[in-house]
Amino acid sequence: MSIGTLPESPIPMLSSISACRAWRQDAFDQKKTVGLVPTMGALHDGHLSLVRRSLHENDLTVVSIFVNPAQFAPHEDLGTYPRTLPGDLEQLTRQQVTVSHDVRTPSAVFLPGIQDMYPSGIHQDVALQKGTFVEVKGYSHQMEGASRPHFFRGVATIVTKLFNVVQPTNAYFGQKDIQQALLLRRMCRDLLLPHPDPDHLHIIPTKRDPLDGLALSSRNAYLSAEERSVANTLYKALQAAESEWTAGKAKDASIRAAEDLAAGAVKEAVVRGIEMRLDYIEMNNANTFEVLDGQSQRQPVGGEPVVLSGAVWVGKTRLIDNIVLG
Ligand code: PAF
């Protein structure tokens, strides 16, 4: 499928695999480090914080924009996912950092078409798919994977392809999608990918609305003003669980505190005519993704990190968030 006429931008746009490979080869020849920020567009300050981090740490930075059909189930929002390329390019143009007198701006935007990325074609229904896909077994069915069983297969597949084309020295992902980032690090290790080294896959803290703590997300654009006013419920619930956990309460009691807070907020929202429903809140071992036993408690320093994560439906929008404990 053609990606149509591209908007004007001072940043070079690489709209084919061959253009991107040639660009990367030049960077190899010049011994330049390359940072990759993979995105699906609809950029917000969370994405831009990854871009700025990459600008700081690499000679060159490439941002990929590709809405990946394989990570949406047939009933999900592929059709309505925000596509805002002109605005994305404008925001990227404004990103600039100075590193020892070297003024750095994004070096290129990689904009592949669907056929480029899926030469065997792509069907959103996994049962009908043909071709090669990447599955990170044992790490894709918990947490987000329990609600979206197709999701990580789609992500692992597209990110493998992006890594194969761009061969980044460093790659940058947001903590908001913590399971995605940890799973991709494992994937780099398992597939012995030369680029990036698993230790060069960086996870950057979640950017939040400074007023109410809502995690920035492209899907926040779906929220009406009323829905937006309650959308930070999940974060507040996670914070409630975090403070119980930090105070020494067991997992079950900590999660109950979060669920109680969310239940109160849902009741108030319903009175105001806003649909809201908690999907899940869970605590998982950050290394194995296994669900913590209900009686587990915070370990003294040196214990394994825990991911406290959850999802909430606000109207027709599903929002996710997490806090890393320890
Ligand atoms: O986090 C995202 O935006 C996407 O899952 C990613 C990593 C760009 C793959 O499509």
Automatic annotation (TrEMBL):
Pfam families (UniProt xref): Pantoate_ligase (PF02569)
Reactions catalysed, as given in the entry: (R)-pantoate + beta-alanine + ATP = (R)-pantothenate + AMP + diphosphate + H(+)
EC numbers, comma separated: 6.3.2.1
SUPFAM superfamilies tied to this protein: Nucleotidylyl transferase (SSF52374)
Keyword Lipid metabolism: no
Residues annotated as transmembrane: none
Family matches, as PANTHER family: CYTIDYLATE KINASE/PANTOATE-BETA-ALANINE LIGASE, PANTOATE--BETA-ALANINE LIGASE
Family: Belongs to the pantothenate synthetase family.
UniProt protein name: Pantoate--beta-alanine ligase
Naturally occurring in which organism (per UniProt): Boletus reticuloceps
